[in-house]
Design brief:
With 396 residues, the protein is mainly α. The protein has helices spanning 6-25, 39-43, 51-61, 67-82, 109-124, 134-145, 174-187, 192-202, 214-224, 248-256, 262-274, 319-331, 335-354, 374-386; strands spanning 27-28, 31-32, 49-50, 93-94, 101-102, 172-173, 236-238, 241-243, 359-360, 367-368. Helix content is 46%, strand content 6%. It catalyses: Hydrolysis of terminal non-reducing beta-D-fructofuranoside residues in beta-D-fructofuranosides.
Amino acid sequence: MKDLSPDDHALLDQCEQASLDLLVRNLSPHGILAASRTEAAVARRYTRIFGRDAAICIMAMAGSGVPALEEGAIASVQALADQQAANGQIPKYVDPEGQDADFWYLGCIDATLWWLIAIDHLRGLGRVPAGRWAPGEALAIQWLLAQEHQHFRLLQQNEASDWADIMPRSGFVLYTNALWYEVKRRFGLANAEETKHHFNHLFNPFQRDLPEYHRARLLRHYARRGRRDPGMYLSFVNLSVVGDEGDVFGNVLAIQSGLADTDMAARIVQRIGEAGASVPWPVRVVLHPLSQQHPLWRPYMGRHQQNYLHQYHNGGIWPFVGGFWVMALAQLGLHAQARAELVKLARANAHGGWRFTEWFHGKTLAPMGMAGQSWNAAAFLLASKALGMAASSPVR
């Protein structure tokens, strides 16, 4: 690739190998741990198999050609399946020894969504028989359908109950419903087109097309009142309360799942670029962090001193989300931009001696959170593969 220097190519090769090595190191006999085992990671329970983290890792591990990772991908799904609740819900995380399953404070709806995506990925690669996990899969889908609005065909949830687990998003949440549409598409579930239709009306209320459903029109009125078009999807929509902080991950997933049409996808990419969200590394997960004076601020956002301005889910830089950003750019055919972002992503993972930092402060760039994050490695590998940049790729 003429737009990359020899040093860039060398860095990408090094990051690919470091990513594979990290995933192998973070494997347990029962599956992939969220982070490398350190005293801090043990204390904060990062040495668990998380539903969302593991699923993202599974998509990189399966098909890697590394036997330990191929086996670990299947083991990770099984570990979560073994602790599936009687009602079908997949835990936020499970203890690798099978002694503990956690469902967070107000639930963890995305763990179930990601688990289903991981199953479909493994089946698509022919790694498991079609019927493996079928009873649990049916139960998980039934649990999700029980939380689907019967007209909007969107999932409903409590505050702080997905990956952004100390953010005040509730009701209809962008990130969750982008995943829900992806699950519907993969599993051929009913009412997928209705989900797509209402997704675009509720999360993009500034479009000219007026919803036919009278309750959707009222939600649209509340969402628009006193606001300008942000140029991207709202992060959540509740009755008279919405999120316009600029949720990068949710918007990127909307592109990847096919929910955003060509024009909307271009607007999202433009908005993220204008905000400098990937400078110097991809990518800040919120474009307009919430201050303590903001109406949406919650006391729990200060837990562990984490979610203040430009920190954690409130504007921190998350390299794993950077991987999804690169994949979205590649999907849109913006290959030169995607390659440049991939190099920046490799630099983020390399920072601190290949620390694979969980997140960086959005202003000071201080490394924060846990070292050795498995999904950082996985997202880099997925992004590299999407661009044909992996060492094993014939496109390179």
